[in-house]
Amino acid sequence: MSIARTARRERVASNAGVALVSVVLLIWTLLPIYNIIRVSLQAKEEVLSTSVWPLAPSLTAFDTVFHQSFWLLKTFWSQMGNSFYIGIAVALLTLAIGTLTSFVIGRMRIRHGWMLTHAALLTYTIPMSFLAIPFYAIMGKYGLTNSPIAVIAVEVTFATPYAIFIFQQYGASIPLELDEAARIDGATPLQIFYRVYLPLMAPAMVAIGTYALLLSWNEYLYAFLLLSGGTVVTVPVALGKFLAGDEAPWNLLMAASIVYAIPPLIRSEEQTSELQSLNNLVC
After folding, report:
1. Which of 26, 33, 61, 120 has its CA 20 to 30 A from that of 198?
2. pLDDT (0 to 100) of residue 66
3. Which 3-state string (H, E, C) describes 98-152?
4. Residue 220 and residue 203: Cα distance in Å, rounded?
């Protein structure tokens, strides 16, 4: 009886400890987000105050962002369009290259196809920041230093190896008998790809498409280097200009950041569930 009571106490203490650590981690994670919201609701003069709560909360900063009534925000919605264009293009190209490559390697059974996958993964052995200057030089030779195509090419380069790896792991769970049955019915490899392979790869495509979109959506370094200015600038680069002056309008910066973060937040829950299922499959 005493053993059971001791075990029960240990279990309660363990659960209490886990709950306490979880609460601390949750507060630590949400605190920066709260500060972003708090600053966006304050006036410029109140940003540096030591108050934990907004002294006079107002949506003036958001109104300024939506109406582009500040000189650094005059083309905000155009910049949002540039970010959407680059993100969608990167996602579509990554999905196209990744699915075609994994189909050819995994379903067509080409000889030594695994070498292509492993060679692509070698891209991640070098940090993205180390490749910034070489990429800038390459794009300069092709005259693409102020074109969204340059950023799209870079982001697809870094997103494709991971996409191929995940597609191959997920595609291994699809029975090859389906391909053989389609061939018996007279289907060509292209028809098998579109009518058999792609529909069954839908969950992986959702996860990888979201991953590629977020990768390009949050990109700053290459967008800063390859998009020198004009009408092709993305939102992260434009927001970086807020810090160039002596007095940065932090409330406007935080409000614009929140608006820019809304599209990824909409996809976050779906991406998390898909990636968890894929990670369980890979493991």
Report:
1. 120
2. 92
3. HHHHHHHHHCCCCCCHHHHHHHHHHHHHCCHHHHHHHHHHHHHHCCCCCCHHHHH
4. 28
User: 3-class SS at 30?
Assistant: helix
Residue of 209, 184, 183 lying closest to 197 (CA atoms) = 183
Could you identify the residue written with the tokens 């498409």? 209
Measured between alpha carbons, how far is residue 127 from residues 123, 124, 132, 158 in Å? 8, 7, 9, 10
Structure tokens at 183: 């061939």
What integer pLDDT is reported at residue 273 of this predicted model? 55
CA 217/CA 80 separation, integer angstroms: 10
8 Å CB contact between 235 and 76? yes
User: Which parts of the chain register pLDDT below 70?
Assistant: 1-2, 112-114, 245-247, 267-283
Per-residue pLDDT, 55? 77
Query: Strand, helix or coil at 54?
Result: coil
3-state secondary structure 183-252: HHCCCCHHHHHHHHHHHHCHHHHHHHHHHHHHHHHCCCHHHHHHCCCHHHCCHHHHHHHHHHCCCCCHHH
Torsion sign across C-alpha atoms 200, 204, 207, 208: negative
Return all residues near 102 (Cβ < 8 A) that are at least 6 apart: 164, 167, 168, 171
Could you tell me which of 82, 241, 219, 238 has the C-alpha nearest to residue 148? Answer: 82
Structure tokens at 25: 């981690």
